[in-house]
């Protein structure tokens, strides 16, 4: 038997109540879907559609069918196969960068500034080099391209500078189709991309219980192309969900089930990942609050619900940044996020983010990666068996004696004990910016020396032509 540390919050009866409440909400209250085409698709499948209010009431039978059809395992593929991520994750979750910040801190001056495609390329190359980063989301937004093609440019720049699986968002069906076309170019065609999708899409639900037109139509396109969907619920207790913990959990679960039904109706068997980054609202600022003590409990509960349905899950976060590079949080604030990683989640992201994902920092990406490499020591698997209990060794050592000199200790201590990296330990000081200067020096060296294998120039040329044509279409 293998033992793995896991948090648990809900008992079986409480899980049942969350589930039945979600089913009741979907069937009687429904969800708002601002897309006539997606409403029609659901109506044809058996949902009750009110075209005037754009509400879809989803019966339990459709939910059960979607759960049954959804894959229980999947692979997030990489361009060079070296960084393929198999889900369920074993033994610890995969961590990715933060996504789509609106500014970054300049590596030289430390000042906040707007960002460009060059900055996305730098973040991508750094993420490619860091062993604590498993997949990449563009930490920042490129403001040197048309607003309506932000996501397409981020995908294209990232694929050229990072060989790990990439996470994207979508603004519309046209946007999603362009992203699929670019990724197909790299993968070797539509069918190859479907077999080995080298990116996934984060499809955010607009809490409470609503889906924006462009994003949900893009989700349908991605599902049909075989691109894994992450249905992120960011329910804020007290603002976009009931202030009670139970109400927030139920809202996040309901939104995930609705999103799953949409994916499986569009493309039965399409890969889909249950996701929550739900927190109580910060009553002082109105912001999301990853540092709230309730956060880990909400994520643990949603992780349990995902496990109940057998779905791959993203129910944790990893990113220690505050308003500026470093670790500005206290021990208890950091614990809220750290504990979320113990609920059995397969994925988590947030590395390199500042101000609750508003901004990004190269230094923060490196710091978060280094700390995560050490934190993984808490998430290892341990064999629990007669052999590892080692009663024979206990008898040999005898009462009141030391196990230090016994051969059993010498044979097994390296496998059983985790030894922290003393160099990386310098990057772990809470409420401190002491590590930022050293982080800058390391990043400059990485960006100077680390160059992922380039993509075929003809593919780059063709991809640039695709994007140029899209830019012209959306700008007219």
Query: How many E strands?
Result: 22
Percent of residues in helices: 40-55%
Overall SS class: alpha/beta
Largest sheet features: 8 strands, parallel
Q: How much strand content do the residues show?
A: 5-15%
Instruction: Count up the domains.
Output: 3
Judging from the principal axes of the Cα atoms, what is the shape?
A: globular
**The first-level CATH class name of the largest domain:** Alpha Beta
CATH architecture type of the largest domain: Alpha-Beta Barrel
Please give the radius of gyration in angstroms: 23 Å
- Stretches where pLDDT is under 50 for at least 5 consecutive residues are none
Can you tell me about this structure?
The chain contains 18 helices and 22 strands. With 476 residues, the chain is an alpha/beta fold. It has three domains: 2-67, no CATH class; 68-376, TIM Barrel (Alpha-Beta Barrel), CATH 3.20.20; 382-416, no CATH class. The strands form six sheets. The protein has an eight-stranded parallel sheet with strand order 7-19-18-16-14-12-11-10. It has a four-stranded mixed sheet with strand order 3-4-2-13. The mean pLDDT is 96.
Please give a quick description of this structure:
The chain has 18 helices and 22 strands.
């Amino acid at each position: 038997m293998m033992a793995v540390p896991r948090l648990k919050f809900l008992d079986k009866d409480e899980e049942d109540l969350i589930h039945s409440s979600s089913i009741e909400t979907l069937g009687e209250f429904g969800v708002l879907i601002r897309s006539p085409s997606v409403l029609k698709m659901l109506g044809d499948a058996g949902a009750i559609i009110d075209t005037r209010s754009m509400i879809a009431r989803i019966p339990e039978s459709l939910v059960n069918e979607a759960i049954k059809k959804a894959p229980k395992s999947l692979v997030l593929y990489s361009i060079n196969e070296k960084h393929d991520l198999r889900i369920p994750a074993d033994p610890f979750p995969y961590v990715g960068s933060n996504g789509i910040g609106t500014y970054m801190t300049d590596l030289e001056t430390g000042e906040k500034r707007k960002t460009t495609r060059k900055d996305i390329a730098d973040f991508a190359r750094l993420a490619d080099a860091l062993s604590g980063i498993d997949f990449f989301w563009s930490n920042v937004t490129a403001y040197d391209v048309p607003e309506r093609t932000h996501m397409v440019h981020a995908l294209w720049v990232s694929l050229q500078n990072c060989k790990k699986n990439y996470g994207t968002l979508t603004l519309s069906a046209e946007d999603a189709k362009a992203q699929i076309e670019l990724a197909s170019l790299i993968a070797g065609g539509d069918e190859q991309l479907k077999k080995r999708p080298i990116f996934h899409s984060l499809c955010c639900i607009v809490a409470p219980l609503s889906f924006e037109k462009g994003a949900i139509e893009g989700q349908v396109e991605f599902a049909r192309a075989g691109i894994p969907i992450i249905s992120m619920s960011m329910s804020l207790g007290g603002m976009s969900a009931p202030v009670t913990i139970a109400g927030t959990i139920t809202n996040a679960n309901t939104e995930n089930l609705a999103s799953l039904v949409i994916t499986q109706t569009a493309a039965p068997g399409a890969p889909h990942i249950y996701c929550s980054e739900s927190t109580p609202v910060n009553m002082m600022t109105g912001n999301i609050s990853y540092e709230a003590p309730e956060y880990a409990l909400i994520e643990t509960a949603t992780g349990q619900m995902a496990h109940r349905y057998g779905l791959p899950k993203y129910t944790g976060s990893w990113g220690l940044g505050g308003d500026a590079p470093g670790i500005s949080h206290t021990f208890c604030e950091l614990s809220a996020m750290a504990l979320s990683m113990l609920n059995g989640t397969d994925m988590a992201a947030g590395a390199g983010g500042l101000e609750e994902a508003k901004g990004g920092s190269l230094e923060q990406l490196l710091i978060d990666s280094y700390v995560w490499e050490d934190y993984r020591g808490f998430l290892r698997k341990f064999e629990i068996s007669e052999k590892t209990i080692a009663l024979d060794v206990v008898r040999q050592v005898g009462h009141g004696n030391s196990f230090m000199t016994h051969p059993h200790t010498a044979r097994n201590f390296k496998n059983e004990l985790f030894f922290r990296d003393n160099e990386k330990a310098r990057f772990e000081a809470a409420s401190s910016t002491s590590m930022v200067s050293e982080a800058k020096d390391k990043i400059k060296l990485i960006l100077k020396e680390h160059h992922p294998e380039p993509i075929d120039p003809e593919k780059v040329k063709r991809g640039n032509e695709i994007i140029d044509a899209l830019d012209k279409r959306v700008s007219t």
